[in-house]
What we know:
The chain is α/β, with parallel strands linked by helices. It has a single domain (16-420), classed as L-arginine/glycine Amidinotransferase, Chain A (5-stranded Propeller), CATH 3.75.10. The chain is 32% helix and 20% strand. The protein has 14 helices and 20 strands. It has helices at residues 33-36, 47-65, 73-83, 85-98, 104-110, 114-123, 165-177, 182-186, 233-245, 282-285, 308-316, 332-338, 359-367, 375-384; strands spanning 16-21, 70-72, 125-126, 131-132, 147-150, 153-156, 190-192, 215-217, 222-227, 251-256, 270-274, 277-280, 292-297, 302-305, 321-324, 345-348, 351-355, 371-374, 395-399, 416-420. The strands form six sheets. A five-stranded mixed beta sheet has the order 8-9-10-13-14. The mean pLDDT is 94.
Amino acid sequence: xxxxxxxxxxxxxxxxxxxxxxxxxxxxxRISPRQSSELLFDDIVHLPQMQLEHDVFxxxxxxxxxxxxxxxxxxxxxxxxxxxxxxxxxxxxxIIDYEELPKSHIAILEGLDDHQLAETLITGYLPSDDHxxxxxxxxxxxxxxxxxxxRDHVLITKAAKSARFxxxxxxxxxxxxxxxxxxxxxxxxxxxxxxxxxxxxxRRGEIVAVEGGDVMVINDHYVLIGCSERTNAHSIHLLxxxxxxxxxxxxxxxxxxxxxxxxxxxxxxxTQINHRDITAFKPIVxxxxxxxxxxxxxxxxxxxxxSIREFFHQEIDRDMRFILSGKGESPYQEREQWTDxxxxxxxxxxxxxxxxxxxVTEDAFRDAGYQVLHAHDFLLRxxxxxxxxxxxxxxxxTLPSNELSRARGGSHCMTCPIERVPI
Length: 423
């Protein structure tokens, strides 16, 4: 069982120490074309190839972090069920009620061992006879959206779409029952957006919805929250007030972007990969198309900027550089933003992972002084001893992505960092 220890993230780029991922599971293979849109996938996928690609991604992470520090959400769920038998019983009854299943199914789920129950909760199928109980949760591979570590607190998010509600439920279970989170729970360092008394709908009926792809911790003083297709202003203001009340952060930055599927979260249009480098979609981030930035300070101060670039230059670093998807040229910038050319996760400053299907953006990285190394080449060279991952610098590692990219989320989406070296 994964042991309890300190959880801390105060940047997007500090050396990654521990991260949560989820390997594509059997539920994804059961999505029909008619269901795909309802379950927030843009296409049906070939699961075996998708798993192979995700395995390469995980292997790269393990090469840098060590195998024990790349945590699989499925295993965390099993360990959570094992750690708290009383909660296990309550979870079964709540799931039966939420999914509107007959009470007779309680005994069926209670008769499963913890491994089988975890599989059923994720895939929606009984492993014994492949009998469907409820829909799969294919977006569970995007662990970033479910929880965010903000300095020494953990934010449990709340999805905008009902297709992701069971993901939120399972995340709450893990954060409540797993030993990894016991200390922060006991010390009141979990912010649960699903707590309706603390985070109620607005008087106009606006729901609470914040997804992790819209939350970025820039440093000890600033957290960015996107106001997007999946996260609304009412929720940002509630979260802002909670973060200020707990003294977690000094500034909450509301980043308003177009509410479109193409830009569902702010990490689809920019991510930080180095102290002074951000990958970005030029029309919105640099030019300020249909976007602006509102800065709320804990002392009551308020500032507004006409673009994301202007905010970074004025408040974070005047020398911040923006490396543009598709080199900022159409149609390449639109094509490669769509295939997650702006969605990277940093292993440490200057070393980041992305998909291998954005050639013009790769040229932009080379022009900015980075080497581009495919994941297969990286792993082979490490295995042969000709490359020490500990000394790698200014490198973009590209991941196989024929099937992973169909799910509409990149390496940033597929990682939930819970510990980084402070910077």
